[in-house]
Protein backbone atom coordinates (compact mmCIF):
# COMPACT_ATOMS: atom_id res chain seq x y z
CA UNK A 1 0.00 0.00 0.00
CA UNK A 2 1.36 3.36 -1.03
CA UNK A 3 -0.48 6.10 0.91
CA UNK A 4 0.72 8.84 -1.48
CA UNK A 5 -0.72 7.07 -4.52
CA UNK A 6 -3.87 6.28 -2.56
CA UNK A 7 -4.25 9.98 -1.73
CA UNK A 8 -4.07 10.88 -5.44
CA UNK A 9 -6.83 8.37 -6.16
CA UNK A 10 -8.94 9.73 -3.31
CA UNK A 11 -8.54 13.32 -4.50
CA UNK A 12 -9.76 12.26 -7.93
CA UNK A 13 -12.66 10.22 -6.54
CA UNK A 14 -13.86 12.99 -4.22
CA UNK A 15 -13.28 15.73 -6.83
CA UNK A 16 -10.88 17.51 -4.48
CA UNK A 17 -9.31 20.42 -6.39
CA UNK A 18 -7.07 23.43 -5.75
CA UNK A 19 -10.25 25.46 -5.21
CA UNK A 20 -11.10 23.22 -2.24
CA UNK A 21 -7.56 23.60 -0.91
CA UNK A 22 -7.98 27.39 -0.96
CA UNK A 23 -11.31 27.18 0.83
CA UNK A 24 -9.82 24.93 3.53
CA UNK A 25 -6.91 27.30 4.10
CA UNK A 26 -9.33 30.24 4.44
CA UNK A 27 -11.52 28.20 6.77
CA UNK A 28 -8.43 27.37 8.84
CA UNK A 29 -8.32 31.03 9.88
CA UNK A 30 -11.53 30.41 11.85
CA UNK A 31 -11.17 26.73 12.72
CA UNK A 32 -7.50 26.18 13.62
CA UNK A 33 -7.68 28.49 16.69
CA UNK A 34 -10.60 26.36 17.90
CA UNK A 35 -8.63 23.08 17.70
CA UNK A 36 -8.14 22.73 21.47
CA UNK A 37 -11.81 23.48 22.10
CA UNK A 38 -12.84 20.86 19.50
CA UNK A 39 -10.43 18.37 21.14
CA UNK A 40 -12.06 18.89 24.56
CA UNK A 41 -15.56 18.38 23.16
CA UNK A 42 -14.39 15.39 21.11
CA UNK A 43 -12.96 13.46 24.09
CA UNK A 44 -15.93 14.48 26.20
CA UNK A 45 -18.11 12.73 23.61
CA UNK A 46 -15.87 9.64 23.39
CA UNK A 47 -15.81 9.37 27.18
CA UNK A 48 -19.58 8.89 27.30
CA UNK A 49 -19.11 5.43 25.75
CA UNK A 50 -17.96 2.86 28.34
CA UNK A 51 -15.70 0.96 25.93
CA UNK A 52 -14.01 4.07 24.60
CA UNK A 53 -13.70 5.57 28.09
CA UNK A 54 -11.81 2.45 29.17
CA UNK A 55 -9.44 2.70 26.18
CA UNK A 56 -8.81 6.40 26.77
CA UNK A 57 -8.82 6.77 30.54
CA UNK A 58 -7.58 3.22 31.37
CA UNK A 59 -3.97 4.35 30.87
CA UNK A 60 -2.88 7.24 33.14
CA UNK A 61 -1.94 10.40 31.26
CA UNK A 62 -3.13 9.06 27.92
CA UNK A 63 -6.11 11.30 27.28
CA UNK A 64 -4.20 14.39 28.43
CA UNK A 65 -1.54 13.57 25.80
CA UNK A 66 -4.25 13.03 23.22
CA UNK A 67 -5.73 16.52 23.56
CA UNK A 68 -2.56 17.87 21.97
CA UNK A 69 -2.24 15.10 19.33
CA UNK A 70 -5.84 15.53 18.26
CA UNK A 71 -5.57 19.34 18.11
CA UNK A 72 -2.47 19.03 15.87
CA UNK A 73 -4.35 16.56 13.64
CA UNK A 74 -7.29 18.96 13.46
CA UNK A 75 -5.14 21.98 12.53
CA UNK A 76 -3.55 19.95 9.74
CA UNK A 77 -6.95 19.51 8.12
CA UNK A 78 -6.65 23.19 7.16
CA UNK A 79 -2.91 23.36 6.44
CA UNK A 80 -3.38 23.45 2.66
CA UNK A 81 -0.66 20.83 2.15
CA UNK A 82 -2.17 17.47 1.22
CA UNK A 83 0.78 15.58 -0.19
CA UNK A 84 2.43 12.16 0.17
CA UNK A 85 3.81 13.04 3.63
CA UNK A 86 0.34 14.05 4.76
CA UNK A 87 -1.03 10.73 3.45
CA UNK A 88 1.71 8.78 5.28
CA UNK A 89 1.01 10.59 8.56
CA UNK A 90 -2.74 9.96 8.34
CA UNK A 91 -2.23 6.34 7.30
CA UNK A 92 0.11 5.83 10.26
CA UNK A 93 -2.49 7.30 12.63
CA UNK A 94 -4.90 4.66 11.27
CA UNK A 95 -2.37 1.91 12.03
CA UNK A 96 -1.81 3.25 15.57
CA UNK A 97 -5.54 2.93 16.25
CA UNK A 98 -5.73 -0.50 14.60
CA UNK A 99 -2.89 -1.71 16.85
CA UNK A 100 -4.79 -0.45 19.92
CA UNK A 101 -7.96 -2.31 18.97
CA UNK A 102 -9.87 0.87 18.05
CA UNK A 103 -12.19 -0.48 15.35
CA UNK A 104 -14.25 1.19 12.57
CA UNK A 105 -17.29 1.11 14.87
CA UNK A 106 -15.37 3.48 17.18
CA UNK A 107 -13.62 5.44 14.46
CA UNK A 108 -16.40 6.23 11.99
CA UNK A 109 -18.86 7.70 14.55
CA UNK A 110 -15.94 9.65 16.06
CA UNK A 111 -15.26 11.16 12.65
CA UNK A 112 -18.97 12.05 12.53
CA UNK A 113 -18.51 13.98 15.77
CA UNK A 114 -15.56 15.87 14.29
CA UNK A 115 -17.89 16.87 11.48
CA UNK A 116 -20.73 17.85 13.80
CA UNK A 117 -18.51 20.01 16.03
CA UNK A 118 -16.93 21.66 13.01
CA UNK A 119 -20.21 22.37 11.24
CA UNK A 120 -21.52 24.00 14.38
CA UNK A 121 -18.52 26.37 14.43
CA UNK A 122 -18.88 27.09 10.71
CA UNK A 123 -22.53 27.95 11.18
CA UNK A 124 -21.67 30.60 13.75
CA UNK A 125 -18.42 31.92 12.20
CA UNK A 126 -19.24 32.14 8.48
CA UNK A 127 -21.55 34.31 6.40
CA UNK A 128 -24.35 32.30 4.80
CA UNK A 129 -22.83 32.46 1.27
CA UNK A 130 -19.57 31.04 2.63
CA UNK A 131 -21.14 28.03 4.29
CA UNK A 132 -21.81 25.80 1.28
CA UNK A 133 -18.27 25.97 -0.23
CA UNK A 134 -16.79 25.49 3.24
CA UNK A 135 -18.92 22.43 3.97
CA UNK A 136 -18.18 20.99 0.53
CA UNK A 137 -14.39 21.30 0.96
CA UNK A 138 -14.53 20.06 4.55
CA UNK A 139 -16.63 17.00 3.67
CA UNK A 140 -14.16 16.08 0.94
CA UNK A 141 -11.13 16.20 3.21
CA UNK A 142 -12.99 14.19 5.85
CA UNK A 143 -13.97 11.56 3.25
CA UNK A 144 -10.28 11.36 2.31
CA UNK A 145 -9.30 11.01 5.99
CA UNK A 146 -11.80 8.21 6.57
CA UNK A 147 -10.67 6.35 3.45
CA UNK A 148 -6.97 6.60 4.42
CA UNK A 149 -7.74 5.19 7.86
CA UNK A 150 -9.97 2.43 6.50
CA UNK A 151 -7.34 1.41 3.93
CA UNK A 152 -4.71 1.27 6.68
CA UNK A 153 -7.03 -1.10 8.56
CA UNK A 154 -7.34 -3.35 5.50
CA UNK A 155 -3.57 -3.42 5.10
CA UNK A 156 -3.18 -4.26 8.81
CA UNK A 157 -5.72 -7.05 8.55
CA UNK A 158 -3.97 -8.53 5.52
CA UNK A 159 -0.62 -8.35 7.34
CA UNK A 160 -2.21 -10.10 10.33
CA UNK A 161 -3.52 -12.88 8.14
CA UNK A 162 -0.09 -13.24 6.51
CA UNK A 163 1.33 -13.76 10.02
CA UNK A 164 -1.08 -16.68 10.34
CA UNK A 165 -3.30 -15.05 12.98
CA UNK A 166 -6.62 -16.79 12.56
CA UNK A 167 -8.09 -16.60 16.10
CA UNK A 168 -10.07 -13.40 15.39
CA UNK A 169 -10.12 -10.55 12.92
CA UNK A 170 -9.47 -8.06 15.77
CA UNK A 171 -6.35 -9.96 16.78
CA UNK A 172 -5.21 -10.10 13.14
CA UNK A 173 -5.88 -6.35 12.81
CA UNK A 174 -3.89 -5.46 15.90
CA UNK A 175 -0.94 -7.81 15.26
CA UNK A 176 -0.81 -6.84 11.58
CA UNK A 177 -0.81 -3.12 12.45
CA UNK A 178 2.05 -3.71 14.90
CA UNK A 179 4.15 -5.32 12.18
CA UNK A 180 3.41 -2.58 9.64
CA UNK A 181 4.33 0.13 12.17
CA UNK A 182 7.60 -1.65 12.98
CA UNK A 183 8.40 -2.03 9.28
CA UNK A 184 7.72 1.68 8.71
CA UNK A 185 10.19 2.58 11.50
CA UNK A 186 12.96 0.27 10.27
C1 LIG B 1 -11.70 11.19 14.32
C2 LIG B 1 -11.20 10.18 14.94
C3 LIG B 1 -9.86 10.22 15.64
C4 LIG B 1 -8.77 11.02 15.43
C5 LIG B 1 -8.61 12.12 14.40
C6 LIG B 1 -7.75 10.61 16.37
C7 LIG B 1 -6.49 11.18 16.44
C8 LIG B 1 -5.44 10.61 17.12
C9 LIG B 1 -4.06 11.02 17.01
C10 LIG B 1 -3.54 12.14 16.14
C11 LIG B 1 -3.32 10.20 17.82
C12 LIG B 1 -1.79 10.25 18.06
C13 LIG B 1 -1.11 9.27 17.13
C14 LIG B 1 0.41 9.29 17.33
O1 LIG B 1 0.88 8.82 18.37
O2 LIG B 1 1.10 9.75 16.41
C15 LIG B 1 -4.23 9.27 18.43
C16 LIG B 1 -3.88 8.28 19.31
C17 LIG B 1 -4.80 7.55 20.03
N1 LIG B 1 -6.17 7.53 19.87
FE1 LIG B 1 -7.21 8.55 18.51
N2 LIG B 1 -8.24 9.60 17.14
C18 LIG B 1 -9.52 9.34 16.74
C19 LIG B 1 -10.38 8.42 17.27
C20 LIG B 1 -10.12 7.65 18.38
C21 LIG B 1 -11.06 6.79 19.02
C22 LIG B 1 -12.51 6.56 18.58
C23 LIG B 1 -10.41 6.20 20.05
C24 LIG B 1 -10.98 5.19 21.00
C25 LIG B 1 -11.31 5.33 22.13
C26 LIG B 1 -9.04 6.72 20.06
C27 LIG B 1 -8.05 6.38 20.95
C28 LIG B 1 -6.71 6.69 20.81
C29 LIG B 1 -5.64 6.16 21.65
C30 LIG B 1 -5.82 5.20 22.80
C31 LIG B 1 -4.43 6.68 21.15
C32 LIG B 1 -3.01 6.40 21.66
C33 LIG B 1 -2.69 7.32 22.81
C34 LIG B 1 -1.32 7.08 23.37
O3 LIG B 1 -0.35 7.63 22.82
O4 LIG B 1 -1.24 6.37 24.34
N3 LIG B 1 -8.92 7.60 19.02
N4 LIG B 1 -5.52 9.55 18.01
How many β strands by DSSP? 0
Number of helices: 9
Oligomer: single chain
Q: What is the N-to-C succession of helices and strands?
A: HHHHHHHHH
Q: What is the global morphology?
A: globular
Uncertain stretches: none
Q: Sheet bearing the most strands, described?
A: none
What is the count of structural domains? 1
Strand content: under 5%
How helix-rich are the residues, as a percent range? Answer: over 70%
Q: Could you tell me which ligands this complex binds, including any ions or cofactors?
A: protoporphyrin IX containing FE
> What is the top-level CATH class?
Mainly Alpha
The overall pLDDT average reads 96
Q: For the CA atoms, what is the radius of gyration?
A: 17 Å
| CATH fold assignment | Globin-like
Structural class: mainly alpha
Terminal-residue CA separation: 17 Å
Q: What CATH architecture do you see? A: Orthogonal Bundle
Q: What's the CATH H-level superfamily name? A: Globins
Amino acid sequence: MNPGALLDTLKRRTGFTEAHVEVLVGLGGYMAPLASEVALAFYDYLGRDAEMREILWGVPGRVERLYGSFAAWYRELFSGVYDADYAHRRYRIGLIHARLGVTPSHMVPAMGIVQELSLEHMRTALRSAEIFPAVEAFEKIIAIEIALIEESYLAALEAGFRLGVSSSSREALSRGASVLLQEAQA
